Amino acid sequence: MARLAEPLATRIADHAIRAACRLAAHRIDLRVEGLEHLPATGPALLAARHFHHFYDGCALVAVVPWPLRILVTLDWLENPAGLRLMRSACQLARWPIVARSDSQVWHGHATQARVAPAARRQLLAATRDCVGLLRRGEFLLVFPEGYPNIDPGFTPKVGDGAFLPFEPGFLRVVALAEQDGITRVPIVPVGLEYQRRAPWRVTVRFGHPVWHSPDVASRAQIAAIEEQVRRLSGLVCAPGADKAKSDVPAVEART
To answer: What single DSSP character describes residue 238?
Structure first.
């Protein structure tokens, strides 16, 4: 039903984005595992590893059989005209936009006193947009690390194996969406494993969906999901991860 209610321009944008991503995916050796773990219908939130600034999103849009709304950041854009163009494109595709408060671009052009309020305003707007999308039954893709390993601009990561702690915003969005007492949002952990060869070999792995649980500490739930994404990405577990995971009850979503 959500698709029928979409404006024609958004549906056209969805088809164009999918076509472009599938074309881009021909430049990599793309493999998929666990696609059966995706819910048959939305809503769902996909929490994915962020390795490549371009191929991550392209690979996921290409393989997920439903339109994906992606939480993106445009704080890397310094050109005002380019920023306006990208904002318009994201609005057309219904992709929420968030600013990273620690962005090097923001800090390079404004004082911290100006950056923080602007970032907070955009965060609130993005949160509202994400909650609205989930309540409409959409599939929302989030990269909780915030930064990829490979980026032509700034990234705090060093090396292919670097992995940043997950930011808590994705779990908060799910909790807010479920406050209406009707919406239930499974969280799907998504691993991305890259192997350097010509071309890149990229394996996308979808894990079993899990539910947000208000009875379990948010930090423990985030740590458990983060560890699943690490494992699905072929990475070594973080120190103490096995203990943290054992402290969180496994609540898988039934699809």
So the answer is: P
Angstrom distances, CA of residue 101 to CA of 57, 97, 116, 189, 206: 22, 13, 6, 25, 30
* 126-183 pLDDT, tens digit each: 999 999 999 999 999 999 999 999 998 889 999 999 999 999 999 999 999 999 999 9
pTM of the model: 0.85
Nearest to 254 by CA among 215, 211, 224: 211
Q: Which CATH architecture has domain 2-246?
A: 3-Layer(aba) Sandwich (3.40)
Report the run of H or E that residue 188 belongs to, with start and end: strand 187-195
Classify strands 187-195 and 29-33 as parallel, antiparallel or unpaired. Answer: unpaired
Neighbouring residues of 75: CB distance < 8 A, sequence distance ≥ 6: 99, 100, 103, 105, 106
Residues 6 or more apart whose CB falls under 8 angstroms from that of 166 comprise 47, 144, 145, 222, 223, 225, 226, 229
Are 187 and 45 contacting, i.e. CB atoms less than 8 angstroms apart?
Answer: yes
E-strand spans in 1-111?
29-33, 44-48, 68-70
CB neighbourhood size of 244 (10 A): 18
Lowest mean pLDDT among 17-31, 114-128, 191-205: 114-128
Segment 103-113, tens digit of pLDDT:
544 444 444 55
Interior/surface letters 130-147, b for 16+ CB within 10 angstroms, e for the rest:
bbebbbbbbbbbbbbbbb
